[in-house]
User: Fold Zinc ribbon domain-containing protein from Deinococcus actinosclerus.
Amino acid sequence: MLGLLLSLWVTLPGVVRPGEPGFLGNVNLIFHEAGHVLLMWAGEVVMLLGGSLFQLLVPAACIGVFLARGERFAAGLVTLWLAHSLAGVSAYVADAPLRNLPLITGDPDTHDWWQLFTIWNALGWAPGLGRVLHALALGAVVVGVFVALWDDLKEKE
Assistant:
């Protein structure tokens, strides 16, 4: 239980150092940028989506591996990573109209979601989609805690 609480404290954005992405934020950034590179061949829209997609798929794949091996506690902890990643993507999506988040390029015109919503002529969708993704992130925290504690909860029955 202590390990789970420590993991929650470390993984939730802004808890350790408010305003900074923290360790997992930097890990997510690596997978985000790798997604752009790996999907560059598939066209502009897929390449732009690839960053956020890979940022979510990598922890999701790790969850799948742990569940397949029957390691629920590990799967639950990694679900907290997925929640962190979802929270990051939700903030990025919601930021599209304003483009206030710092980008590694330093150029607000390279904002993936601003470009996507501009291509789709749907910039007004950004706040709503950001809220939906944030709600999914909060749900992932609850699911992660439940999955991590499943064996303990089952023993008490």
About this structure: The mean pLDDT is 87. The two ends are 18 Å apart (CA to CA).
